[in-house]
Amino acid sequence: MDPNAKYIWFHAASLGEFEQGRPLMERIRKEYPQYKILLTFYSPSGYEVRKNYEGADIICYMPVDTRLNAIRFLRLVRPVMAFFIKYEFWSNFLHILKHRNIPTYSVSSIFREDQVFFKWYGRSYAGVLKCFTRFFVQNEESKRLLEGIGITAVDVVGDTRFDRVLQIKEAAKQLPICEAFRTGVASSQSADVPHHDFKVFVAGSSWPPDENIFIPFFNEHKDWRLLIAPHVIAEEHLKLILSLIKGKKVVRYTQTTPEEAAEADVLIIDCFGLLSSMYNYGDVAYIGG
After folding, report:
1. CATH 3.40.50.11720: which residues of the chain?
2. Is the pTM of this model over 0.85?
3. Domain with CATH 3.40.50.2000 in the chain
């Protein structure tokens, strides 16, 4: 870490929050090149995919939220401002940031009336929100709720994911394995082989409760193919998915070829970094969580 540099700190829990904050991060990088960007993650699913992201100067995990960790971290980094994406409310870090008069912003946040901040017993939790310098929320309801507990530094700016979706659409990766899975034909095969354009159900960032919903449906409908990218890519989770799938040919992205994928009923994405591009190959999408 450069002791003479001025850092702008972005924190994202995971990959999804990173994508939400990315348009803002890249705009700041472009408009204010004199500042360096520090990017922290809480989840391995974010860090492992973006640890080599060129849009940030330093990328690391967020320390556990204790007062001592917050003091040490901020003493080391000395950010000139901080951005927390969506649902990130780290009490100790936020209180120390406020104590040090470091401008701190909540970006793309969204609130619901049933959250603890807005309950009669939620005063201490609401105090965490009051550590932010300003909120940039997704909708008017969130603004109304915050104003109801005395927070008026709020702007309604919409969801930054829409900005990022346009960027992703323009830069989507071509995935020959997914293309073969959809059409039933690999690019290496003869042009005489008929293209089928199967109906494809895409399940992104799925958890076991999600899979218990859509896999039984898929088992009963023979005319659909399933393209699934589980949120947790661990052998135990993949084995659980396989146990739910009945009578189907299953292949894994890292262990197959376009020719094999063309003949499969289920394609499991068992690696990071492809989720945003794979939606191009589906007819229906299910977003887990």
Report:
1. 7-167
2. no
3. 174-287
For the stretch 46-87, pLDDT in tens is: 898 899 999 999 999 999 999 999 999 999 999 999 999 988
Alpha helices (runs of H) in the chain, residue ranges in sequence order: 15-31, 44-50, 67-77, 91-99, 123-129, 140-148, 160-170, 176-183, 208-220, 235-244, 258-262, 275-278
Region class of 54: left (phi > 0), else alpha (psi between -120 and 50), else beta: alpha
Residue range 174-287, CATH number:
3.40.50.2000
AA letter at 104: T
- One-letter amino acid at 141 equals E
Tokens of 131: 């550590």
234: tokens are 């661990």
Q: Under CATH, what is the fold of the domain 7-167?
A: Rossmann fold (3.40.50)
- Both tokens of residue 84? 């927390």
Phi, psi of 26 (to 5 degrees): -75, -30
